[in-house]
Amino acid sequence: MSETQRTREFITGNEATARGAIAGGCRYFFGYPITPQNKIPEYMSAHLPEVGGVFLQAESEVAAINMVYGASAAGARVMTTSSSPGISLMQEGLSYMIGSELPCVLVNMVRGGPGLGNIGPAQSDYWLATRGCGHGDGQCITLTPNSVQELHDFTARAFEIADRYRNPTMVLADAILANMMEPCDVLPPTEMPPADRPYAVGPHGQERERNIVNSLWVDFDEMEEVNLRIQERYRQAAEEITDWEEYGSDEPEVLVCAYGISSRVCESAVDEAGKAGVQARLVRPKTVFPFPSEPIAKWAEQAKCAVVVEASMGQFVEDVRLAVEGRCPVELVGHAGGNIPAVSEVVARILEMTS
Q1: What's the rounded Cα separation, in Å, for the pair 293 and 58?
Q2: Could you say which of 3.50.50.60, 2.60.120.10, 3.40.50.970, 3.30.360.10 is the CATH number of the domain covering 3-240?
Q3: CA atoms of 297 and 107, how far apart (whole Å)
Q4: Quick one: residue 180, left, alpha or beta (phi over 0 = left, psi -120 to 50 = alpha)?
Q5: CB count, 10 Å around CB of 325?
Q6: How many angstroms separate the CA atoms of 190 and 329, rounded?
Q7: Which of 155, 254, 285, 288 could form a disulfide with 20, with the two C-beta atoms 3.0–4.6 Å apart?
Q8: Do 202 and 208 touch, CB atoms closer than 8 A?
């Protein structure tokens, strides 16, 4: 991907995601409509064939993830997108892909839940994204953008990450990011060279033996060896791609932790708290699996307390508490069902905890 060829445009998060996928080399898309991400498959249906790609609307999310499974097994760069209930339906197929050591990219534009819920913004799929990916010991590598630009860039990058670790990689966003419009520096479509993927079904001419993609291992030792390989890739990912951003005072009284749309609220809250005489530091994970425990632990040593802000009843906060390890008290500011914590509410909690 050439950084010099970017064009600046005013687009929605959904369009930025779709165009990031094409720039990242996606040539196969299988999905099923669900609000608030419907504009992604709409864009892909119109523009993926222009770069030699294939779009297919599946009859369900279950069908979609199994089409993704098949395309990945054949060596394709492939993706699907959905929202909360749809991602739930994909869990079995995702676990099969982990067991088969296959890459794919999926985007979850989270909506209010549980159940069908509503089409408002939420961050209540955090556990689904970081502890989910179906049964067994597998997990999604999970990226958490907080802007239209990052939706574009993280989606483009997700294909390389998925390929590197041979694992499903999720871009975890929400209904606000999906539909808001911001300036975005858009990458051009990438010309993908023919892929020589040793894990894909074969044979490929006379170059290697026939390969069978499989997630069923009757022998206990073989099954454990697959698990050990997967866990070693997660360990490598933790060393190589763990990412975060920091904002605010270098001498904070309060550590603030948030990701995605909530982190934008918290930037303003950090500024407002500073005006009120309380210095704060925001740590914003860009990856939540692997999780950036190190900077959180570092600032927790110095801060009097930590405030965690998320649009759920408290999921992300559990990883923050694990990282803090009792160094300071941790408090949650959370809302659910489509409601987002307000700047004034976050500031009030910061001031309350330092008074």
Answers
A1: 39
A2: 3.40.50.970
A3: 29
A4: beta
A5: 11
A6: 47
A7: 155
A8: yes
Distance spanning both ends of the chain, measured CA to CA: 50
Domain residue extents for the chain: 3-240, 244-354
What does the DSSP 8-state code read for residue 107?
E
Rounded (10°) angle between helices 61-73 and 91-99: 20
Q: How do residues 142-160 score in pLDDT, each as one tens digit? A: 999 999 999 999 999 999 9
pLDDT exceeds cutoff 80 at 123: yes
List Cβ neighbours of 146 (8 Å cut-off, separation of 6 or more). 177, 259, 260, 261, 263, 264, 284
pTM (2 decimals)? 0.96
Domain 3-240 shares a fold with domain 244-354: yes
Distance CA(105)–CA(41), nearest Å, equals: 14
Contact 191, 2 (CB under 8 A): no
Contacts of 4-8 with CB under 8 Å at 24 or more apart are 5/187, 5/188, 6/185, 6/186, 6/187, 6/188, 7/185, 7/186, 7/188, 8/183, 8/184, 8/185, 8/186
At residue 283 the predicted structure's pLDDT band, cuts being 50, 70 and 90, is very high
- Give the fold, CATH level 3, of 244-354: Rossmann fold (3.40.50)
Q: Tell me the C-alpha distance between 312 and 314, whole Å.
A: 5
Q: Is the peptide bond before 33 cis (omega within 30 degrees of 0)?
A: no
Structure tokens at 128: 């689904």
Instruction: Report H helices in 166-291.
Output: 175-179, 220-240, 260-275
Q: Using one digit for the tens of pLDDT, what is the confidence trace for 190-235? A: 877 666 788 888 765 666 677 889 999 999 999 999 999 999 999 9
Q: Which residues contact 294 (CB under 8 A, 6 or more apart)?
A: 242, 323
- Nearest alpha-carbon partner for 237 in 169, 294, 295: 169
d(CA 234, CA 289): 9
